[in-house]
Amino acid sequence: MKITKKIVETKGTERLKRGFTKMQKGGVIMDVINAEQAKIAERAGAVAVMALERVPADIRAAGGVARMADPQKVVEIMETVTIPVMAKCRIGHFAEAQVLEALGVDMVDESEVLTPADEESHIDKKKFVVPFVCGARNLGEALRRIQEGAAMLRTKGEPGTGNIVEAVRHMKLVTREISALKKMSESQLRKKAKEYRVGFKLVKETKKLGRLPVVNFAAGGIATPADAALMMLMGADGIFVGSGIFKSASPEKYAKAIVEATLHYDNPKLVAEVSKGLGQAMPGLDIKKLPKDQLMQIRST
Amino acid sequence: MKKLKIGVLALQGAVSEHIEALERTMKKLGLKGKVLAVRKTEDLNEISGLVIPGGESTTINRLMLETKISEKIIELAGQGLPILATCAGAILLAKEGDEQIKKTGTILLGLLEMKILRNAFGRQVNSFETEIKIPELGKRPFRAVFIRAPAVEKVWGETKVWAKYKNKIIGAKKGNVLALTFHPELTSDLRIHEYFIKMAVDFPR
Predict the structure, then answer these.
(1) Would you give the distance in Å from CA B108 to the centre of its chain?
(2) How far is Cα B17 from Cα A295, in angstroms, rounded to an integer?
(3) Average confidence (pLDDT) over A217-245
(4) ipTM greater than 0.90
């Protein structure tokens, strides 16, 4: 009898999820609300688009409950572009995440931009085949999300404000906290793991790597090419732009310029070149003047 | 012994993974040298081998044209510079593309006589890893990681099939240029990087 070894194909592994996010590095992921915007993003050189009902600035203005986008819209966007399509679900809303996975989106953003569905816990992301990205303000949040199965992280920043200050704060804090880990003894690391409510192994791995164990993008308030360059210089692996493109005076120009500034972030002359004559950036908000209950970043930690 | 310099095209994508794999391989082979991130045309001048990594082919292509780096790559490939391209990189080396590639206005470098199909295995939820056999690497199977991977529909001319999975071509080679639709940089198996570095060692600089 001839024995033929069955070929086994494995899907949804940690390597495949994290591998996908590694392919996004150095790129710009753009929020879009319809197929037409998605096309503009793809043509400008976006590595992926994020499909949502409204950009964060409009979500902020509208108030009320913000939910997952209409699946019809998501499908239209998926059919229009060839680059990966991501979509947001509410924090803890694993049924929305299941719907997005069933639609075949390439990544789910469990996002504080939408109104949280569960204020106690996030989605158990390890149960999914589709990879997840989550926001984090500090190392504790970041490691908790990784422990839950996030394949990628991003700063939370303060979405829809066109104000980079919070993204900068979050990026600096994570970097500082990782530097602190590097000086810690085994017993101090154990204490940190307890404080962060994560496994000791993950804290130890982070110390060893000297960086987050998954790809980490900047998000929340990026409005100009120089904003993108700033976040790359601070160590971001790539950039999410929410309202910054389609709330600007000329989305095509902004989209292209932010893509190029993300590549040439350490070449100020080129960043200057691509920043010329773009027209009005998106309107900005002073975060200190926002009422506390309108801050998105403090939703669910 | 002269120092070996290998470049990794660093416009977008899985750049650091290739750099690390190449550094580990050099160490393993006891070779002195370094791996550079190539972002400008001038960076190509001193290298003995170039890796074009995975990422988004539409993005890398746009940035390649913008920086005019593609012309120099074609020129050096003609002079025999060893090139290893993975996933999105493999797409860019092809002579012919499918509808998706035409629709996005991607301008292919045309270094390999092959027709490539983008996202041939489906979207991310269909990404998979499996064991494949590659004749050039011997009997031990290679763990191949396919992420929204392309596949080669056909090869012609001097371009030969280098690796196959089921009925799909997943690796093609013509002389000094090797294209793979999977990601050897995402596993700890260094045999493909070793194979490539051995090609680079022979390239006169």
Answers:
(1) 14
(2) 37
(3) 97
(4) yes
Q: Is position A88 annotated as part of the catalytic site? A: yes
Looking at chain B, the whole-number percentage of residues with pLDDT higher than 90 is 93
CB contact (8 A) between residue B103 and residue A82: yes
Nearest-CA distance B203 → chain A (Å): 29
Q: CA separation (Å) from B138 to A62, A245, B186, B188?
A: 62, 51, 20, 17
The domain spans of chain B are 4-201
Amino acid (1-letter code) at residue B119 = N
The tokens for B109 are 């470098």
CB contact under 8 A, B128 and A16: yes
Query: B4-201 in CATH: which number?
Result: 3.40.50.880
Across all residues in chain B, what is the average pLDDT? 95
Residue bearing the bigger pLDDT, B6 or A285? B6
Q: ∠ CA(B10), CA(B16), CA(B19), 5° rounding?
A: 90
> SS3 for B169?
strand
* Res. A2 pLDDT band, cuts 50 70 90: low
This prediction has a pTM of 0.96
Q: Which of A16, A29, A269, A274 to probe by mutation at the B interface, max B CB count within 10 Å?
A: A16
> Strand locations in B77-176, DSSP E?
83-86, 94-97, 112-117, 128-132, 142-146, 151-155, 160-165, 168-174
Coil, strand or helix at B198? helix
